[in-house]
Recover the amino acids of this structure.
């Protein structure tokens, strides 16, 4: 995991042990409740060209499906971590059901992802940007260190929160 760090890096180093064998994972979509809408949220209809990923079922929307674009804070409501903050996510307008699989849907693994490891106090202890195909391995390495409580995954380019990862 520290392979991307160089002596010229200005970023803080990972606080985690490097090269631990990855542990099995579980995926937690929408770890905190969705906000209740005071006014109707922004909605859009997916098309063949615009297939955005829903953060509840973790599937890309099929053409014709309606999604809400909302602001969402994925940290626990009672946490005072400075990392808190709401950001944009898409979620199906209909009740699509929470993702329960053991591996992420293939289309999620085709994107550039940001992985941020947090300890029990919701403070960041490591961060990496990886190709989606490397997400499970790197998240598994981060969670192999007991200092990590969970890993928050974001789409690296637009910054949307994607899913929380924990030890299975
Ligand atoms: Zn959905």
């Amino acid at each position: 995991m520290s392979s991307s760090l160089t002596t010229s890096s200005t970023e803080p180093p990972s606080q985690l042990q490097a090269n631990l064998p990855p542990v099995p994972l579980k995926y937690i979509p929408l770890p905190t409740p969705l906000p209740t809408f005071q006014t109707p949220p922004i909605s859009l209809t997916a098309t063949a060209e615009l297939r955005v990923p829903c953060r509840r079922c973790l599937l890309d929307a099929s053409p014709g499906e309606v999604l809400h674009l909302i602001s969402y804070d994925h940290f626990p409501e009672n946490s005072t971590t400075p990392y808190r903050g709401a950001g944009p996510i898409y979620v199906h307008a209909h009740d699509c059901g929470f993702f329960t699989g053991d591996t992420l849907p293939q289309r999620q693994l085709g994107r550039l992802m940001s992985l941020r490891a947090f300890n029990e106090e919701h403070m960041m202890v490591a961060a990496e940007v990886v190709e989606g195909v490397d997400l499970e391995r790197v998240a598994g390495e981060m969670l192999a260190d007991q200092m990590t409580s969970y890993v928050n995954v974001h789409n690296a380019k637009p910054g949307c929160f994607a899913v929380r990862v924990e030890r299975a």
Residues 54, 56-57, 59, 92, 96 surround zinc ion (CB under 6 Å).
